[in-house]
């Protein structure tokens, strides 16, 4: 059954420790396999492949995974492997509260510990919706067995009243119009039925599409896998091919550590800039890299993103949707377009280099995937801002902001919580002008808790009626990757742990200069020190269980929001089989 060029033999399969020895413990393992209807012919000398399925009844983006797992199993059987399915918390972005970000590390632990505790030789990671891709990859990196990703794929284009709708991006736009009185309740309800028409992730370049794109450029998916629409017939074919490929990866002993190098992460950062990817990707890529012992920092993102134009003409920064991106050639075509800026020698799950995987790629629509000399935006897709307000950094997407706000100084209007903001933002007597800087405190990893997507603060209704559609907004929270606007996010350290954001008061002047990468609170050092001395640390948001564990060990945004005890590559012994 082994691959002809195999560097490992069946005797070296990890699962052999459970199923091979002629002793009492292995007798129990084999007898229970027979209890489930399997005979030795099903698993002897075959790699045992764990399929990590993030399906559940409320994970709408992964609703097709219930069936797609069968395609993966078919491919595994065809290649001579033995498939075993394991559930992982689905992290459905819409329904999971207070935030899927709070449970990303939980899902990563599920994957890592499930692999370690079971006779698994290789892993298929069924991912897609925002946090599942980094979660499953983090767990697989820590476990260290061969692994491959099956991206969920984008849903079909939204459609309503003859207009193409993009999930997330158009929701925010039309919600502002509804709040301004420009859209009726009946029109809004009609949009509900047309904006999400099939299984699959958001069809804009939100966090889900960004992170599956990152998985592809990192080399952890089959070439082109991240762009295939969820309901396209190419998707089950890709899933089956992943099943076949993971079996060969086990025989080849091709592990994440062979693929996820520092240079591979550099490729991901450059690609992220070219697609104007979600700001959330910075947190996830840092966490993934640190799992593999790579000290990736925000400064590396800022360094590599400078001068990279946005060439993916996909919402929210562009005009098209992910289905169009796929027809134009998908991520492979975009990588071909920026190939001169990438390290094409990096290994991928195919056993070939990134450059070899791009050899025969073409671009079919140059308006969707633009050439470097005709980008959709010369503005950078990412900027890391620092200053006395954000010593650990704050993140902004200049390409998604009104250009007038890229250099701005205005008075702060501060909300100490999301509830306070929601209760007051639409008040007619709210003392706010278009030049104000909206500030939300206590939305970070500890303060949310879980760093919810509150960072795209709504424009006050009184200003919406005046035609205002963007303002400078600051927070220690995240925002949806489908969002847009002049939002400075992930400000670190967060307010809840005594970061400088906690000391901002309504009326303080705040200055932002994106070109200079600066974010400053314009008060004296003496006043700053006085406010710091007055600050009192609050109690953890959740006093027990996982919430308390989270509060005790979560890192800040600039460090990837991983748990401190999960970072790095400290060796973990194989479990004793007795």
Description:
This protein is an alpha/beta fold and 578 residues long. It has three domains: 10-156 and 198-357, Response regulator (Rossmann fold, 3-Layer(aba) Sandwich); 159-192, no CATH class; 383-538, IlvD/EDD C-terminal domain-like (Glucose Oxidase, domain 1). It is built from 21 helices and 14 strands. Strands 7-8-12-11-10-9-13-14 form an eight-stranded mixed β-sheet. Strands 2-1-3-4 form a four-stranded parallel β-sheet, sandwiched between helices. Helix 5 (100-117) runs parallel beside helix 6 (132-143) and helix 9 (207-218) packs parallel to helix 13 (280-291). The radius of gyration is 24 Å and the shape is globular. It starts with 15 loop residues before the first helix and ends in a 25-residue tail after the last helix. The mean pLDDT is 94.
CATH class of the largest domain reads Alpha Beta
How many helices does DSSP assign?
Answer: 21
Give the N-terminus to C-terminus distance in angstroms. Answer: 28 Å
The CATH homologous superfamily of the largest domain: Response regulator
Averaged pLDDT: 94
Overall geometric form:
globular
Q: What would the CATH topology of the largest domain be?
A: Rossmann fold
Helix content: 25-40%
Number of domains: 3
Structural class: alpha/beta
Q: What is the rounded Rg?
A: 24 Å
CATH architecture identity of the largest domain: 3-Layer(aba) Sandwich
Please indicate the percent range of residues in DSSP E strands (runs of 2 or more). 5-15%
Low-confidence stretches: none
What can be said about the biggest beta sheet? 8 strands, mixed
Count of distinct strands: 14
* Biggest sheet: strand arrangement: 7-8-12-11-10-9-13-14
């Amino acid at each position: 059954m082994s691959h002809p060029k195999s560097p490992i033999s069946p005797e070296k399969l990890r699962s052999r420790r459970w199923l091979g020895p002629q002793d009492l413990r292995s007798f129990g393992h084999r007898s229970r396999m027979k209890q489930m209807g399997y005979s030795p012919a099903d698993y002897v000398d075959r790699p045992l492949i764990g399929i990590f399925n993030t399906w559940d009844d409320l994970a709408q983006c992964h609703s097709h995974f219930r069936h797609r797992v069968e395609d993966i199993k078919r491919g595994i059987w065809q290649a001579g492997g033995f498939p075993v399915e394991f559930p992982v918390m689905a992290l459905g972005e819409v329904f999971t509260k207070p935030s899927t970000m709070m449970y990303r590390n939980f899902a990563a632990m599920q994957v890592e510990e499930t692999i370690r505790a079971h006779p698994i030789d290789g892993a298929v990671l069924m991912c897609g919706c925002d946090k599942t891709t980094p979660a499953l990859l983090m767990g697989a990196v820590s476990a260290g067995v061969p692994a491959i990703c099956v991206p969920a794929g984008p849903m079909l284009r939204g459609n309503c009243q003859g207009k193409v709708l993009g999930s997330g991006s158009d929701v925010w736009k039309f919600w502002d119009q509804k709040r301004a009185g420009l859209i009726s309740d009946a029109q809004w309800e009609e949009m509900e039925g047309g904006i999400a028409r099939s299984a699959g992730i958001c069809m804009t370049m939100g966090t889900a599409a960004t992170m599956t794109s990152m998985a592809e450029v990192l080399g952890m998916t089959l070439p082109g896998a991240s762009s295939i629409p969820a309901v396209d017939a190419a998707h089950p074919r890709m899933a089956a091919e992943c099943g076949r490929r993971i079996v060969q990866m086990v025989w080849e002993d091709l592990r994440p550590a062979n693929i996820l190098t520092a240079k591979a992460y550099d490729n991901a950062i450059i690609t992220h800039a070219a697609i104007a990817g979600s700001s959330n990707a910075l947190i996830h890529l840092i966490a993934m890299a640190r799992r593999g012992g790579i000290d990736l920092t925000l400064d590396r993102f800022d360094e590599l993103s400078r001068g990279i134009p946005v060439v993916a003409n996909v919402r929210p920064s562009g005009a098209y949707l992910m289905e169009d991106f796929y027809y134009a050639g998908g991520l492979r075509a975009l990588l071909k377009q920026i190939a001169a800026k990438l390290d094409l020698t990096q290994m991928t799950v195919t056993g070939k280099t990134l450059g070899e995987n791009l050899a025969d790629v073409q671009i079919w629509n140059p308006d969707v995937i633009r050439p470097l000399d005709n980008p959709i935006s010369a503005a950078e897709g990412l900027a890391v801002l620092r200053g006395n307000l954000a010593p650990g950094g704050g993140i902004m997407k200049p390409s998604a902001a009104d250009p007038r706000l890229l250099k701005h100084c205005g008075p702060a209007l501060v909300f100490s919580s999301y509830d306070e903001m929601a209760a007051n933002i639409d008040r007619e007597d709210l003392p706010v002008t278009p030049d104000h800087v909206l500030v939300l405190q206590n939305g970070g990893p500890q303060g949310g808790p879980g760093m919810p997507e509150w960072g795209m603060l709504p424009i006050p209704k009184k200003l919406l009626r005046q035609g205002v559609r963007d303002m400078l907004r600051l927070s220690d929270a995240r925002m949806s990757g489908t969002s847009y606007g002049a939002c400075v996010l992930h400000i670190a350290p967060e307010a809840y742990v005594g970061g400088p954001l906690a000391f901002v008061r309504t009326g303080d002047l705040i200055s932002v200069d994106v070109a200079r990468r600066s974010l400053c609170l314009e008060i004296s050092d003496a006043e700053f020190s006085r406010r710091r001395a007055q600050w009192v640390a609050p109690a953890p948001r959740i006093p027990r269980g996982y919430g308390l564990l989270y509060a005790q060990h979560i890192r800040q945004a600039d460090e990837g929001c991983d748990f401190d005890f999960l970072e790095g590559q400290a060796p973990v012994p194989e479990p004793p089989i007795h």
